[in-house]
Amino acid sequence: AFAALVGLSTAAVAADKLTVGFSQVGSESGWRAAETKVAKSEAEKRGVTLKISDAQQKQENQIKAIRSFIAQGVDAIFVAPVVATGWDSVLAEAKDAKIPVFLLDRDIDSKDKSLYMASVTSDQVEEGRIDGRWLVKQTNGKCNVVELQGTVGSSPAISRKKGFEEAIAGSPGVKIIRSQSGDFTRSGGKQVMESFIKAENGGKNICAVYSHNDDMAIGAIQAIKEAGLKPGKDILVLAIDGVPDFFKAMSEGEANATVELSPDMAGPALDALIAYKKDGTMPPKWIKTKSTIFFPDTAKAEYERRKSLY
Ligand code: GZL
């Protein structure tokens, strides 16, 4: 009887050892790399086995990875959906296999909310509003803005554009004069900003660049300097993510504002999964992370504080 008891408890412990398959977008930005790093340490802290697949920003690779996780019979699937559409069939396969799905840092626009247990994301429309409101105030409602959009079709690109436009709608003097995707990368942001500068009288017509993430803004800062202009002064630089290098740029007077995006999306998802596995507790559909705007005045301290995290 004793052996059976021991056997039982070992089995119970084994059942606790959860395995999660994480379909990650790629490593297009400093923020994305930090999210992956934090996901690994958060899983380790909880004794969860995390299998990460890097899709190099291709949706078909994410779909392949999700199918493979289903075949492996993982306990849950985390996915950061590179774009908002095209997920219904593969997530229906996960649902049929009774494998809970969590969306991390990006949303899908599916009508069928039963295809995922919860999404862990910031309020990406509000992120755009926060930047827009700050720019209107900072420029007394007069500014020709160029916009660096994130990955075409991704929920952050759609939502951050929407929120920013909402915030400037009441100030006709604040106008988006050019807008194009830099695909969330530093090189993309630099190339697009170079074309904006060329098209706008060497950059003299441009009052500010609004970037959907810090990495494209860091590329834009290079382009502004190479055009002989002063980023942060001749052209205001505002973005979203809160990566260390952007805080460094702010502390050096080369950037003006960023809205922090927590790189820890996996921790809250893991806690929700563990609670569900333990006693069936269902998490809220949207586990929302905080959005706080930061400025040059605290940038040096914030840079020091964040370096180790990235
Ligand atoms: C937003 C996230 C975005 C980051 C970028 O939640 O999906 O993707 O803002 C990253 O840095 O590429």
Automatic annotation (TrEMBL):
- InterPro entries, from UniProt? Peripla_BP_I (IPR028082), SBP_2_dom (IPR025997), YtfQ_transport (IPR054837)
A single cellular component GO annotation: cell envelope
**Main localization (coarse):** other
Q: Name one GO molecular function term.
A: carbohydrate binding
Keyword Signal attributed: yes
Q: Which Pfam families match?
A: Peripla_BP_4 (PF13407)
Name the UniProt key words of this record, in alphabetical order.
Signal
Q: Where in the cell is it found?
A: Cell envelope
Highest rank taxon of the organism = Bacteria
Every Periplasmic binding protein domain range = 21-267
Q: Which family does it belong to?
A: Belongs to the bacterial solute-binding protein 2 family.
Q: What is this protein called?
A: Monosaccharide ABC transporter substrate-binding protein, CUT2 family
Species whose genome carries this gene: Faunimonas pinastri
